[in-house]
Design a protein that fits this description.
mainly alpha; Growth Hormone, Chain: A; 14 helices; disordered C terminus
């Protein structure tokens, strides 16, 4: 399978089954609450329940992919997600919608972790970090674009249209995986599905200070970013009164500019300064973003720019973190990349689920709770990262 087709599939699967499935309907959160006669916090919880489904099933799909390869688990997951999308389309109560979102998450768990394993099958080390950065530039047009599509669908067709769109997107991904994707794993074997092997491999990951330190850091960083997805629609659509389409456009430009610039910067500088320093720079920007949002409330009140400018900085900082954290955590574990992908993604998305759930029940009448979540999570993530043994993550020799 040539690299262009593989990159296309990785982009499609990672965007379709992680961020896109979350972001496309966030402009509809207030409308769903009204249509289903549900509390706003319950609709926000439908965001987190999706991530709970993803995170829990990652621990199944990861080991399974190291036993039988990547293709079959991805196809199974996409089929489950297709069913969940159809349940959401037909939902007439918040409980049914939450059930559909959980099913979507259970299916999305296959590719949410395995796209990283596929990437690790092909690339390694600093090359993995470099191509991970360029991959980020490509997905900048997909992930930030999801709220724009959702805003358009909400404004002109209603909230169910977003789930109809996701049904079609998931069906397309399933067809392409079945007929286009060629197995990339060269080290899968049924022996890796033995209980003794599963325990041994997870124990190997859990005992690695490098792997667990990085995954805890991403748990907190992704949790802070997901808190914006949970609180953002309430702040801008419900409080500031922008339209769903304007919210989508703001999110697109904020994320798109930050993703593209940070991806380009990291791709150019990581070989010179090393993964460690690029991640430190990322947390610096994330911390500044939270502080600016907090100060902005007292200087400018609740308005679009006092919220969006800090979010741009946070997106930029987090995009410096993701590819380097991914490369630093995965590089020593190429022989069990499925297990590594499962546990890494479980921690990352679990952070979104846990911290996003907390965010759903915090006051949403201004940006102060969101600002504190960004500040506290960034500080804790950076602190944990600094506890990791430094020699392994030193700048590369060819810097």
């Amino acid at each position: 399978m040539n690299s262009n087709k593989l990159l296309f599939l990785i982009i499609l699967l990672s965007a379709c089954l992680t961020q896109f499935a979350t972001d496309v309907y966030i402009p509809s959160i207030p409308a769903i609450a009204h249509a289903l006669n549900a509390p706003m916090s319950a609709v926000q919880h439908s965001l987190a329940i999706y991530l709970y489904g993803v995170a829990l099933t990652l621990l199944i799909y990861g080991p399974l992919s190291d036993g039988i390869g990547r293709k079959i688990p991805m196809a199974i997951g996409l089929a489950i997600m297709l069913v969940g999308s159809l349940v959401c389309v037909g939902a007439h109560s918040i409980h049914t919608l939450i059930l559909g979102r959980f099913l979507q998450g259970c299916g999305a768990g296959a590719c949410a972790g395995l796209w990283r394993s596929v990437f690790r099958d092909v690339f390694t080390g600093d090359e993995l970090a470099k191509f991970g950065s360029y991959f980020t530039i490509f997905v900048m047009f997909i992930v930030p674009g999801a709220p724009v599509i959702g805003g358009l669908l909400q404004q002109y067709l209603g909230w169910r249209a977003s789930f109809i769109f996701m049904t079609g997107y998931t069906l397309l991904a399933l067809v392409l995986v079945i007929f286009l994707y060629q197995e990339t794993s060269q080290q899968h074997h049924l022996d890796k599905l033995k209980m003794s092997a599963i325990i041994h491999n997870f124990k190997r990951l859990l005992s690695s200070r490098i792997f667990m330190g990085i995954t805890f850091s991403t748990f907190l960083t992704y949790g802070a970013m997901f808190s914006w997805l949970s609180a953002g629609p309430i702040l801008l659509i419900h409080v500031v009164k922008v339209t769903p389409l304007v919210f989508g456009l703001l999110t697109f430009f904020a994320g798109g500019i930050a993703y593209a610039l940070a991806g380009w910067v990291n791709g150019k500088l990581v070989l010179r300064f090393g993964m460690t320093n690029m991640m430190r720079l990322g947390w610096t920007f994330a911390l500044i973003a939270g502080i600016l949002m907090l100060i902005g409330k007292f200087l400018f009140g609740i308005n679009v720019w006092a919220i969006i400018i800090p979010i741009i900085l946070f997106y930029f900082g987090s995009t410096l973190i993701w590819p380097n954290a991914f490369a630093g955590a995965f590089t020593p574990f190429g022989d069990i990349a499925g297990y590594a992908g499962a546990l890494y993604s479980f921690m990352q998305l679990g952070g979104g689920a846990v911290i996003g759930t907390v965010m759903a029940y915090l006051p949403a009448h201004n940006q102060i709770p969101l600002a504190w979540v960004m500040i506290i999570c960034s500080l804790l993530a950076w602190f944990i990262y600094e506890m990791i043994p430094r020699p392994v993550l030193a700048p590369p020799k060819n810097a």
